[in-house]
Design goal:
It is flat and about 40 Å long. Helix 2 runs parallel beside helix 3. Helices cover 26% and strands 20% of the residues. The protein has helices at 2-6, 11-18, 20-26, and strands at 42-45, 59-64, 67-71. It is of the alpha+beta class. Strands 1-2-3 form a three-stranded antiparallel sheet, with no helix packed on it. The chain has one domain.
């Protein structure tokens, strides 16, 4: 993704290409969007990847299918 930015895309366009635009190409209208009834997996980063895709190097939390599968912020 960082190479895509280096090639001239904005970070926001890179994120869209990996989410909603990819879902459109697959014909999956319930993927790549955040809305009621859509299937979604979520990540949490300290910074905004739509402003700087390098933020994806620091993923702290992941939810898949409604279940938290990674939480680096949780007490151990």
């Amino acid at each position: 993704m960082e190479f895509m930015v280096d090639a001239g895309m904005t970070s926001l366009d890179v994120m869209r290409s990996a989410t909603s635009h990819a879902a459109e190409l697959l014909g999956a209208d319930d993927l790549g969007v955040i809305r009621e009834g859509a299937r979604a997996d979520f990540i949490v980063t300290a910074a905004d990847p739509t402003s700087d895709v390098a933020a994806l190097r620091g993923i702290d939390w992941v939810m898949q299918g409604g279940v938290v599968v990674r939480d680096d912020r949780a007490p151990r």
